[in-house]
Design brief:
4 helices; 21% strand; alpha+beta
Length: 128
């Protein structure tokens, strides 16, 4: 399953390596995926009337399935660099560190920690 072939929330769940959000009525957070070749990262926000999948597809049920809008797509090596150096995924690669004042900074840092933990597990041959 390649990133651009994701058709539904099950496809998304199958390649998700990290996710963190508010877990309340107004969800807001980050999600990271790895398809075996490339990684992608997205920030999302939605109310309880629809889920993360719909939010990533434009926030409208009628648009759901038209493709996920990613904030960043790159290699596994680049994603690990972003996580280790706490880089801002919305700035040109490597030009800015994330700042505590950034929207959803805590969620981004939690996702970065999960990514590093996932990488350590997969390096040892354990399934994520």
């Amino acid at each position: 399953m390649l990133i651009e072939e994701i058709k539904d929330r099950n496809d998304l769940q199958n390649i998700t390596i990290a996710q963190d959000d508010d877990n309340d009525y107004e969800e807001s957070g980050y999600i990271a995926v790895y398809d075996g070749k490339r990684c992608a990262l997205a920030r999302y926000s939605h109310c309880s009337c629809y889920g993360t999948w719909t939010a990533l597809n434009g926030g409208d049920y009628s648009k759901s399935g038209n493709g996920v809008t990613w904030d960043w797509i790159g290699t596994k090596r680049q994603l690990l660099k972003m996580a280790r150096e706490k880089l801002d995924p919305h700035a040109p690669f490597g030009t800015r560190k994330a700042d505590e004042k950034d929207y959803d900074y805590d969620h981004l840092m939690n996702v970065y920690q999960q990514i590093l933990e996932w990488h350590e597990k997969t390096k040892r041959g354990k399934k994520s």
